[in-house]
TrEMBL record:
Signal peptide limits: none
Keywords: DNA damage, DNA recombination, DNA repair
Protein purpose: Involved in DNA repair and RecF pathway recombination.
A UniProt-annotated Pfam family: RecO_C
Domain DNA replication/recombination mediator RecO N-terminal: 1-75
Gene symbol of the encoding locus: recO
Organism of provenance: Streptococcus pacificus
The keyword DNA damage appears for this protein: yes
Coiled-coil portions: none
Sequence similarity: Belongs to the RecO family.
Protein name: DNA repair protein RecO
Length: 253
């Protein structure tokens, strides 16, 4: 068992026996690990084992079983996210999405940085719906899904009014719409934005301005990509879908 100090983000915790808890933490140095916390209610680490808590952890890493949290410092609780049910729902979904693509005990500092930067931007007030879309699109490669939103599948021309074909897993320009009678019939702004989302760096992102109608179209199209090419069903995503049905009532209140 090795003692290490590393940044970590709590993904979730669950009860174990009567008083103990198991805590899953995505660590920057050692990937996703499960930690055992004895008598969790009275433990000195209780303040930092809630989901969406980030800290500098001192950990005892066990390669063949459960690991342990020795101490912590420099805690960040994402207070603005936790104070807003909409931000919290979307943040919980992207955390669950990252969890689903991560293998246990495999370090992935680039995904750790991407995930924590996304949460930081949501906490700072940037559009959580669009940030979630960007996260989803850039995560597709990790699910083994590589889609070209840059040029036509047939003639490779660029900068046209493209549509997407699930049949060909790529774009169709107006000259090749007839290749797929069941093409998506997208607003041409959708493939344009997806192409931007695939490569955008968050350091370049200062503001986000996409109207509500276009955001709804983006949501539906990205859902179709995940349904067809990824196929995972997350409870946190179902909650977001339900927010779309009754959440507007809360916003009006």
């Amino acid at each position: 068992m090795e003692t290490k100090e590393t940044k970590g983000l709590v993904l979730y915790n669950k009860d174990f026996r009567e008083e103990d808890k198991l805590v899953k933490i995505f660590t920057e140095s050692d990937g996703k690990r499960m930690f055992f916390v004895k008598r969790a209610r009275k433990s000195r680490v209780t303040p930092v084992i809630q989901p969406l808590t980030m800290a500098q952890f001192i950990l005892k890493i066990n390669e063949s079983g459960l690991s342990y949290i020795e101490d912590y410092k420099e805690v960040e609780w994402f207070k603005n996210i936790n104070a807003d049910i909409f931000k919290l729902a979307y943040a919980s979904y992207i955390v669950a999405l990252a969890d689903s693509v991560l293998l246990d005990a495999i370090e992935d500092p680039s995904l750790f940085s991407f995930l924590t930067k996304t949460l930081t931007l949501i906490n700072q007030g940037l559009d959580y719906e669009v940030l979630t879309n960007i996260f989803e699109i850039q995560l597709l490669d990790r699910f083994g899904v590589s889609l070209n939103f840059n040029d036509c599948h047939f003639c490779h021309r660029k900068n046209l009014a493209f549509d997407f074909s699930h049949r060909f897993s790529g774009l169709l320009c107006p000259d090749h719409y007839d290749k797929d009678p069941h093409r998506s019939h997208l607003n041409p702004n959708i493939p344009y934005l997806i192409n931007k989302f695939q490569t955008i760096q968050f350091d370049e992102l200062k503001t986000i301005s996409i109207n509500d109608s276009l955001k709804k179209e983006l949501r539906l199209f990205i859902d179709s990509l995940y349904d067809d090419y990824v196929g995972i069903k997350l409870k946190s995503k179902s909650f977001i879908d339900d927010l779309g049905k009754w959440g507007n009532i809360m916003k009006q209140d």
